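seq as requested:
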Amino acid sequence: MPGYRHNSPPNRFDRDMLMKILRLMTLTTATLLIAACQPKADAAKDADAAAKKPVATLNGKAITQGEFDSFVKQVSGRPSADLDDEQKKRALDSLINLRILAAQAEKDGLHKETDLAAQIELTRLNILQQALAEKYLEGKTPTEQELKAEYDAQIALMSRNEYRARHILVPTEIAATQILERLKKGDRFETLAKDSIDSSRDRGGDLGWFSPSSMVKPFADAVMALKKGETIAKPVQTQFGWHVIRLDDVREVQPPPFEEVKQQLNQAVLSKKFRAYSDELTKAAKIEKKI
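struct tokens:
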């Protein structure tokens, strides 16, 4: 059976599984704690009361509706209200089993181990950061003017051209130079591309249409410097190896209409607002680095 270890100590669970269990329990518990700390209107207080309603007990300790809802959301991405009775029963059984295993993990002292404790703490910090972002961005819906400014900024950074190129990727500069020499003697690029270590070798080195921003900078710069139909004079090195490149075609790209990308623009503006807030907090903090 995959994952079964014959040399595992008796009555101890697989450590990797326990790490996952403790992280999930931390995620569920931290989400509930954050929700509990938020101010509540009357309607929210009613919902809070419902969230505290026990759905089961385990060794005398209540498992609440809120914990169950959070667990279902974490593992399935769906609200528990979307589940039918059988699915809810299975989900509750899973949560109970999760609590049993987590209790055993803590009994074995795994939550005190340095690496696991650090991962649990990191999970807690990430949840708190998300909660802070949601709280800070409440009521800060981007205006039409902000969205248009972001649109203009992104359009300014966007390449107005797309390129279609072929390349041959080899491990060494010597191999790339030899390929260039063979091209000068009349060998076909598509034939030599069969020696490429890139998967594009099956397409004669064809990379299809791409924007420069989708490629690593040395490669993109080399492509943009070529004329249509031209092959590079010297090999270009990237972290992947050495490239021999031929530019096959260029076409102008029209930016997407403003209305089509409003949702993405909204997220971009919100991200910038929270990043600015984060920068303010960082500047105000007393930071001493040891590495």
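The chain has two domains: 15-136, 159-252.
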